[in-house]
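Human:
Focus on the backbone:
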Amino acid sequence: MRLYTSYYKSLLRLGFPIVIGQLGTIVLAFADTLMIGHHTTRELAAAAFVNNLFNLVIIFALGFSYAITPTVGKLFGQEKEEKIGEVVKNGILANLMLALILMLVMMGVYFSIDGLHQPKELIPLIKPYFIILLVSLPFICLFNVFKQWADGITDTALSMWVLIGGNILNICGNYILIYGHLGMPEMGLLGAGLSTLFSRIVMAVVMVCAFLTIKRYKIFVHGFLKGCVNRVDFMHLNKLGWPIAFQMGMETASFSLTSIIVGWVGTTALAAHQVMLTISQLGFMIYYGIGAAAAIRISNGYGRKDSSAVKGNAYAAIQLVLFLAVIVSVPIFLFRHDLGSLFTNNRQVQDLVALTVIPFMVYQFGDGMQIVFGNSLRGISYVRPLVFSAFFAFFIIGLPLSYTFAIVCHAGLIGVWWSFPFGLTTAGLLYCWNFRRRVGKVFGKH
């Protein structure tokens, strides 16, 4: 550990705002699930189904936008600030085109909902909520562009404050629209969707305004206005973005598609699945903050051709994440019998939530490893192996095991959760191996 102590401080300083911003997202997910769950259990189950499908799309879009961070980070390390503005302009075009593609794909899913064999009583709740979240996709993609730009120039505090403000806005909107306060009608799940849409629009607008009006960003705005949409930057962002998007998309799909399997088990299991997925995001987002900080520091070091910074930040990050995994897991284990009651009064749901905590603890190691080394590969712009590694880990190992444990072995929801450690740990080991191999090839073994 003494070899990497010097990197801890910079990673924590850079990663802390990302962690706080991501925890704001977790608070939002907690609030949504908690407020919907206390309205009706059926709405909680419907939200579980729709949110897990959209999580796949949202994470895919986020992964695509990750191409901006190492590109901006490398240019920032080389002090080419005006060029960064031009990259942002090309990033907006690339990400809005992706939003259009994703909306068309999700429309296809919308017209297929009746054929996915979900509980019939949930369909009238699922469809309107689905459409509202669909409309929010372009605003998510626009926000992603400016968040990754800000992270790339190491200004992680900007997106943190915008995320926190957006989450507060959404929670207030939930209170008003779900339960019908301040003269508004009681809209339940539909109200939660409208509140989410409004907060996402506001967050995107605020990030754009911050970019254009804050004085310290003037040089980036100059490059943005002076630069043009060009084939080189556009293709570079697509070349980096698609592999990262597919890697993150496949990881999320292994979770999202399990919601369909859990739906075959029943409404109670689906509600418990949503509660535990919300809780599990706590660890993921904390680890992601450190992993994203590592990607930024690694991309800066890679731009300077500093091999010590590239290796040191990666290995310091995995040490920090493993330490944080213990901090996250212990209190969740100790309070496992009380967690479900935060979200619903249904005793069966509460008992199922408690049973999923053990496999949740087991997969923290693999989850932390795959986040850190996935981000490390992104930092050195070596993203091709991510796709093949993720496909093997999540679709050859993880998803088949979910079906086998849950349906074939009749373990239900608990079987699904015991499949997660296998896929995540496999992904973490493959990403680590690819990172070490690539760094050894670029900088030498020593």
User: Anything to note?
Assistant: The mean pLDDT is 86.
